[in-house]
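Dear Dr. L.,

I hope this message finds you well. Following up on our conversation about the binding site, I have prepared a predicted three-dimensional model of the protein together with 3-(2-carboxyethyl)benzoic acid. For your records, I am including the exact sequence and ligand specification that went into the calculation, followed by the structure tokens. Please feel free to forward this to your student if that is useful.
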Amino acid sequence: MNSQFSHKKSGVGSALGVPSKWGMSSALASSPSPDALTVRYVHVSGLSQVLEFEPPHILAVINHGERHSKSANENGLNIDVNLPQFFQPRVLEIWKSSSPVLCEQVHGIRLAFTDETVFGCLEVQESSGGVLEDVARSGYEQIFEYCARSGFSHLLRMWNYFPYINADQSGLERYKRFCLGRHQAFSAYYKDFASILPAASAVGTQGGPFQVLFLAGKHAGKPLENPRQISAYEYPPMYGPESPSFARATLHRTARGGQLFVSGTASIVGHATQHQGDPAKQTLETLSNIDAVLNRVRHEGLESCGALSSEGLLKVFVRNQEDWPAVREVLEGHEHGNGPILCVQGEMCRKELLVEIEGIWNLASLPHE
Ligand code: 3EB
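The resulting structure of the complex is given below.
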């Protein structure tokens, strides 16, 4: 199956260097179906080639780490996320549609959209006297307002980035304040919001604005939970005055395939952090959590629009640079270490968490549509 894509088992380093199935040459060789989304990692030096072939179809180019000068993408969004990459050469995360893309800005939100899907980016500079729940609440309300008005009413995936995530702000940790504001916005805009929550990640940066990146569509995705974990939106109050508002994954199905977006996943079983101080064991536990979500999709009849790809596109967040070798070793010994991986330094929402992993798995197109 997929013989042109099959690669020998390779370490994380080489998987990073040559994104296989998501790589440039194979993506150009395949004929994408209408409104298909693709996400891949491309070396900074390969960007111009991508832009030359695909400019009207790029939704977003996301640059993790130091800014690079030639982000010459004039069509989609250029987004800088202040999370340094562990490897050279650095890669860019590129979101592409098979349909033409248009861009606009609505209030503070930059947008790139097709007929079916929108990629958005909201960035707010925090002011010195303010508290994060106010920034989060108003940012989320702006996004919900845009989604309702534009017809892209269904949030499919969100990423939250802001600095000093574990720092105290006037007596409450900033991540908890973020959860509070996000919860206030969700509960004001959606009744029974637990059933519409998208997959999400929340990661602490080394500085810069409060950022929310999002993908939304005209059709709802299916939120999924993890049988090994209590739903985040049902976490007990010991983790903050309001629980985190996200689903463990979103299954985004289109007529011809789709994606499974797996949220930032950590070493949490039930609601408790596992393996404090041990980055290798935390990585293994995290991969078990991801497998539990993938197995739900594979074994509960959720693959009705095509089989889930064996290989995902992973993003790994590691809190401490010195833990990276341990995390890498576990990944290299695991089947999820075989695909493209972007590794960045970032802070998790709980101080004890040393690593977090998110991913995207494709649903294969049905052959005869
Ligand atoms: C967890 O499972 C780990 O607040 O949006 C992962 C993904 C985590 C998203 C969020 C938090 C968030 O609770 C932390």
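In brief: The mean pLDDT is 88.

With kind regards,
A. P.
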